Amino acid sequence: xxxxxxxxxxxxxGRLAGLRxxxxxxxxxxxxxxxxxxxxxYVPLAPWLDGYDLVAPDLPGHGxxxxxxxxxxxxLVSGARAALAVADALGWERFHLLGHSLGGATAxxxxxxxxxxxxxxLLIEALGSLSEPEERVGTRLREAFAGMAAVGAKxxxxxxxxxxxxxxxxxxxxxxxxxxxxxxxRGIAPVRGDAGAAGFVWRSDPRLTLTSAQRxxxxxxxxLIRAIDSPTCMIWADPAQSYMPDALxxxxxxxxxxxxxxxxxxxxxxxxxxPAVVGELFRGFLAG
Length: 288
Fold this sequence. Notes:
The chain is α/β, with parallel strands linked by helices. The protein contains nine helices and ten strands. The protein has an eight-stranded mixed sheet, sandwiched between helices. Strands 7-8 form a two-stranded antiparallel sheet.
């Protein structure tokens, strides 16, 4: 089994870092992590994808990758363009695409936007992104603009010890200690205060926590899903997340031209907590 190694590429989004298994002559597989996660999200799953050139970038503003300029915004479109920029920098013309949560929403958009580039689409806890009624447009814009105006005053939380940050992630996302440790160790950076005391802060861009200025309606999201041509394999945790009830995820899956949906008992990060379950499903799908 090839170990995951650091890589960097220079793109129009800045220098993007990530992890790669080094199988450069194998079929290409681009893996996109979830919101406030990073490339380490795919370390547990990597052994089941050893037959592929697995590349897991830290998306802009996450992990070791550059933050977007102050005038730019983090959106699904910019995330999809950044993912494509990684593939372009690597010289990939066609590739399989894998995404978890926000990374799955980003992958959904990318597959719809450039179907000629994406072979098979693999999704974990995602198909499209969150939607909301059109009546929320004005309220969302006001919330987003207020957040942008106040972001400069936000103070980063400083952790005295990495173990504290690990416990925070465990509680926030219902993660086991080993899984939380993987994400935290890549997602944290040392800092020294004015008094000389050392600590650690999240190195993700604080703007990632702001309200998005725009969100698609459910009708728009369903139109996007219909535009996905790639054969698609989804795995969802059971019970379903409150924001994506089982009925909705099955309705969306039914819009795909070629899609298969699986559910397995687990939590939102089931690809990290139960990599064998997810890995066997995806390995069989990719080989089929």
